[in-house]
Amino acid sequence: KTCRAAAIICPEALTSVLPDGLTSLVSDNPQLAFARASALLYPAAMRPQSLVGEGEISPQASVDTTATLEGGVEVSPFAAIGPRAQIGAGSRILSGAVIGADVKIGRNVTIGAHVSVTNALIGNNVIIHTGARIGQDGFGYAGSPTGMVKLPQVGRVIIQDDVEIGANTTIDRGAMDDTVIGEGTKIDNLVQIGHNVQIGRHCGIVSQVGIAGSVKIGDGVMIGGQAGVNGHLEIGSGVRIAARSGVLASIPPGTSVGGIPARPLRLYLRELAELAKESESGRDQRGRSET
């Protein structure tokens, strides 16, 4: 009753409990409606902002003469764009970002401050936040009697349309194949994605997840924070992986898992409940013996 909002976005079932005089905006998906309304009210918050005017290239930026920039590209001070790079219309390259040789970037892309992008092909409407590293060598070595010998990394990173990548996330280039991030996938801060990983469309990967090399992930997969995925596994579409899980085996589509090693979520939660019950029972027994 003390709400001072101009309106409330809510489902039809809640309109009857709103105070008199408070406008209701009815939606079957209030959070989605709120997101769309907020984007109209705060358009500048939808992607990191440039330090130069629209369509301007700072004289303090370094742009190779062989690079191709379409109209409306913004390049902030101290950004560097390498030979033969291609950047589409409406894209922003913020301060301190480095775009390597032959990188191709689509339209309306935002490359955040101090991001490095090498050996990559990036689609349209992609956002890469501050400090991310895209396209560096993956961790590949062969053992020898004298120590570890580096395996050449010669693949690319392919980032499809509408992907968002969080701050200080790293995505390694492929070794012989490409590392691929599927359309609409959202990746949080501080995520590590190894070489040759293939991630499907519209996945969500939360902070501090580590995905080892050559993992294949289907569409619509959700991975909770601090989970780890072992190399060369297949994670089916629609899988849900609980936070802090250790995935040591492939997971069939539509499965929810948790724990170390990751197992069906119901089993994992039941085990936690039993452990809690045993712990409580042990405390009761110690308490009675002390009494």
Broad structural category: alpha/beta
Fraction of helical residues = 10-25%
Give the strand tally: 34
Q: What gyration radius follows from the Cα positions, in whole Å?
A: 24 Å
**Physical arrangement of strands within the biggest beta sheet:** 5-8-11-14-19-22-25-28-31-33-34
Mean pLDDT: 95
Tell me the span between the first and last alpha carbons. Answer: 52 Å
**Shape annotation:** flat
Report the portion of residues in β strands: 25-35%
Q: Determine the number of helices (DSSP H or I, runs of at least 4 residues).
A: 2
State the low-pLDDT regions, or none.
none
* Largest β sheet strand count, sense and barrel closure: 11 strands, mixed
Question: What features would you highlight for this structure?
Answer:
alpha/beta, 291 residues, 34 strands, 13% helix, flat, 10-stranded parallel beta sheet, 11-stranded mixed beta sheet, single chain, 2 helices
